[in-house]
Amino acid sequence: MGQTIIEKIIQLHSKDEAVSGRIVWMDLDIRSARDFGGPNVVKHYEREYRDSPLADKSKTFFTFDLCAPACTLKYADNQQACRDFARRHGIEVFDVDRGIGSHVLIEEGLARPGSTIVGTDSHMNVLGAVGCFGQGMGDVDIAFAFKTGTTWFEVPESVKVVLIGKPSAATDAKDLTLFLGKELGTKKIALRSAEFYGETVKDLGLAGRITFCSMITEMAGIIGFIPEYGAELAGEMKRFSGRAFSPASADKDALYADSLKLDVTGLPPQVAVPPSPNSVKSLAEVRGTRIDSGFIGSCTNGRTEDFARAAEILRIRKVKKSVMLKVVPATRRVYEELLKRGILETLFESGAIVVNPGCGGCAEGHVGLTGKGETQISTGNRNFPGKQGKGRTYLASPAVVAASCVAGEIAGPEDL
Amino acid sequence: MSKGKVWKYGDDVNTDVIYAGKYTYQQMRPEEMASHALEDLDPEFAKDVRPGDVIVAGKNFGCGSSREQAAACLRAAGVQAVVAKSFARIYFRNAINLGLPVLQSEEASKNLKSGDDVEIDFGGGKIISGEKVFKFPPLPDSVIGILEAGGLLEWTKKKLERAK
After folding, report:
1. Shortest Cα distance from B91 to chain A (angstroms)?
2. CB-CB: which of B66, B143, B151 is closest to A138?
3. What domain range includes position A320?
4. Is the peptide bond preceding residue A275 cis, with omega within 30 degrees of 0?
5. Of B66, B94, B157, the CB nearest to A48
6. Are A138 and B157 a contacting pair at CB < 8 A?
7. Do both A36 and A115 map to the same domain?
8. Is B25's pLDDT higher than 70?
9. pTM for this structure?
10. Domain final residue pick, A228, A249, A267
11. Which of A113, A257, A312, B155 has its CA 20 to 30 A from that of A187?
């Protein structure tokens, strides 16, 4: 019988038969831990395995992105505990200067199509954007992966999702992923791998794919893949790894647990309203909601293209005086591109606060927290109560966030 | 096969009611953790649970946060297994990694009720209660190995010792 993408990738890494529903042992190409979770990985490792060597230090990494550089003593201690462990074992650390771990792994050519990667980041499945099976796991799991280079995994069932039609020109990948959350909720792809087809997703470049695949976690899915691709993506990926881009595709007779069609014809910009990323409305329904702050960044919308889109809107405009716009590039490489392409200057001139790369406000990171009574509009991926502080968070595309920060209320570029 | 009694609960039992957030960052001995198990769902549970008892629940058991204590506290309370229609993904992993068997059986979830006597045949994939027998997909040998060792880290330690 034919195989789905996830079955193919797992099969390449397992001696067991990779059929959906079966638990198999799987070899891991990369195992990583970040400054959140990482210190517990070190603790578990040292308690259980003492000073015995890792399975393979060249495949093991730390990526510090959550609170970078540390702004609390606890994080400073935790990061140093990981660095000390890394030195003892000869592991490379992508330190606090580098940015979001999953993105750094792509840029370093480590996250490749068909590879398997685990880390302590629940959004590690963003790597589905490049055809790589990434997965977030707990501290015990990652300590075990450091030691053995393997993990156990229940091969997920797959769902085929076809997007039909062309969304309105005012939208981008974020509007698509928010719409997906609205339509799929937390049940339709729960515990499953999703394969997305259709012209609209095929044409997405790396940044758009990252955005699109980054919110599968919010839909309770295991991972999302976009098997068809254009020359733009292949070129970008080759630059990172030096290798030809050749992701796995599903067999024609692969078995799917479900098959869905979503019509995105004329889709207008979408906004997720508090308290859930899947409670999504069209921009028209929330237009005019007063905001105090804006955030552009995160593993969902932290690429150069995201900031370029915001800069187009902010080039001849200013952020409203009563509004804070916080900008956090995903990685140091993105930061460099913003600098060299003049995007940083545009954002600075508009009144935005641009800081060093990292995750930003998620899970009490360094920039992007809200206070009680504050209303924020963010390009992030979660707006659960308390996730980014005590305020209320709306989720939208970089264009809508930038326009809203000019208007002082939720707005699209066409409203300015 | 050890015997025990059923503790029956509904759908979507979340990790907050299994092990409250306020205890998550306190270091506790296993027996202390056991004394707080299911505190906000069923205050009688921690008092009356006996080694070998089985929790039977509906769908999506263990949803919510990824805290590993939500599995550890049930194991510390002597729970032999959790039987549910389905489990939240991270809970399922954490439970096996910490040595707590988690079994999927829609039939058992529908038919068993609190106080029923029950025993579990892990190798045979059977949950037995009096005349009634409910099947569950037997766990692969590798997972049974992890559970028998008492969890993933214990299992590797034993494996590494053997390799010496």
Report:
1. 10
2. B66
3. 270-415
4. yes
5. B157
6. no
7. yes
8. no
9. 0.89
10. A267
11. A113
